[in-house]
Amino acid sequence: MKNIRSVQKKHVVEKTIQASDITQQIANMKNCLNNAIHRFELRSLTLILLRTEHSSVQSELSRLKRVPAEYTCVTSKSECLPGTQVKIQKSLLRHLKNAESRFVWLRGSPGTGKTAISMSVASTLEKRGTLAASYFWDKNQSGTGLDSIEQFPSTLAHQLASFSEDFKLSLVRHLRKPALASVQNFPLEKQIRTLVIEPVCELKDIWSSGKDRVVIVLDGLDECGNQEILKSLMMLVLTLQELPPAFAVLFSCRPESGVISAWSKARTKGLIIPCEDVDNIVSDVAFSTVRCMVADGLQELISESPWKPNKRELTDFARACRGLPVMASIRVRDAGLQTRRGRTLQSVFRELLTLTDAPANLNWEYLRILRRAYMLDSSDIHPDVAKKYRLVVGAIVAAHEPMRVSFMSQLFNIGEDEIRATLEPISSIVNLPSGNTEEVTLYHATAQEFITGEPIGNEKDKVFFIDDPKGYFLGLPLLRLFSNYCELDAFGIPTNPPLGDERIWREFMTKKEKYLWGLNYVIVDLLRHLDPSQLFSQESNELQNEFNSFITQNYLLTFMHLQDVGYSRSSIPDELLQFNVSINYSSGVFLMSFLIESQFNPTSERFKGASFHCCGCTMGILPIGAPFCPTLVIPSQTIWPSC
User: Fold this and answer.
1) b or e along 192-206 (b: 16 or more beta carbons within 10 Å of the residue's beta carbon)?
2) CA dist 45 to 40, 235, 356, Å?
């Protein structure tokens, strides 16, 4: 504007010359502005495209189920203490660096600290930027996927996608193929090839250019299920040998027969599999680890106690742990428990160091804890305490997913304080949270194996052992709990006309979400805890009578209404199907379609504006105790929109 005003004051010739310059400046400025706007639009468009692509990639990855299997998600155990198990960690890292070693095996007996070593190695690799993935199984985490192999391939693929952007894009390209729309339903061996092997091998040039090998750490393979499942898992693990040479796999587990057999076959094909055995660690090294665990674990107790143990007493405490890290962690927790119950730290030390029948191994240590908790002066366990122990501890070891104190209280009709009183004396082996709405678990898988294993000790000790792996004792209380809720009409399922009232169904769906959380275990796992031998016995029994009531009062239909999307985990177990039980219903039975079409909603567009009518509903029962194959017969009923 200054230039324009100065031109206005000048001679015509000068005006003409200077105006031309100003015109050029304006044109240049316009070009600059246009270029800036173009660059801004281009960058904005690029950002939009990148965000769109990112959302698309995340959407594809979200199709794959995953479980929290990373070493950082392990809460029941911890890494090795500083300065412990250093030699074996260095040896494992050296093997993993060797290009000839595709697999490295860390083996050892239960409770010897394999998981702690694996976690420490994984932590070291992550700091170096070479930890590609980690999967830590845990049989104590029932229902989370950590006690099975079903989500191993998809979880592994997820972690590799987080580790490598190149792998992520390669994986997404595969997932976008129409043939892989249902990849999560493929057989596991095909899943691991599709989701892991093939996307990685497409990038073999990228992997081969790296200086360091990348490592997958697998721990607790023996906690994935039974021996047949372990064999299947070993087949999946062996498939990883098809990865490029830049990959190495550290796996840690007990020397189970299925593992030994798989590695023997692999070695005959030329695979080199170095092995580090924790059981072969020099006793001084094992003791050093336990000694550090004891000193570290008791540090707070010692600082608060007027009596301080000397070095010799700490050493004796550690030696009494038999070189087993798990026993050391149990005794450290036990010392804390005893001091909170009014004992001095000095008396706890003296008791442990003067045991007349010191436990020789982990199982006898578990038995010692149970005896001291429930058998005063070697007397028999009180019948009432024994009953509660077998119910509560039985639920912990047999349930398909961890239960809360509040839920067990409802299930067994026992006060929450009574359940806590039952578990508190053994809280050195049971992780008893402070809140009643938190899940109760065992600290270590060896505790579950002990309680469900072959009894040891004398006749009085048999009460501590629970031989019901299917948890059939839970069937009757689960059935009763569900029936009680039905009797109270707690679910509020619409049964009276007009069944098409949107408000009624909205209220029910709101209640359904509430009860799916509060009673999820009943709704999902009830059928798995019904004992077929009792249910179909020719002699009348409590379970059979309760189940007859469950059917005759139409609670079965309520049960089906409450099923969540899909019907997988709560589908009829094979144990029930082998009795040739059948449920007959005609094509007119609409409510029964909840088994197939669990997302039925009478207020949806499909039924809007339609009037509903409901024919009378009756249910004929063939007595379950009849001496021939029982059949539930549900005559035709109709809930159809009138046209």
Assistant:
1) bbbbbbebbebbeee
2) 8, 47, 79
Mean pLDDT of the chain: 81
Q: What is the pLDDT of residues 99-116, one digit of tens each?
A: 889 999 999 998 889 999
Token output for 424 = 């508190």
Q: Which domains does the chain have, with CATH numbers?
A: 2-62 (no CATH), 71-279 (3.40.50.300), 282-354 (no CATH), 359-469 (1.10.10), 472-641 (no CATH)
CA dihedral 123, 127, 130, 135 (to 10 degrees): 30
pLDDT at position 107: 94
- With tokens 């494992």, the residue in question is 92
Range name among 208-222, 481-495, 605-619 with the lowest pLDDT average: 605-619
3-state secondary structure (DSSP) of residue 188: helix
- Quote the tokens at residue 267: 């070695």
How far apart (Å, rounded) are the C-alpha atoms in residues 475 and 485?
Answer: 16
Q: What is the pLDDT of residues 172-184, one digit of tens each?
A: 888 888 888 888 8
Band (pLDDT 50/70/90 cuts) for residue 376 is: confident
And the tokens for 236? 């999946």
DSSP 8-state code for residue 247: E
Contact between 614 and 496 (Cβ < 8 Å): no
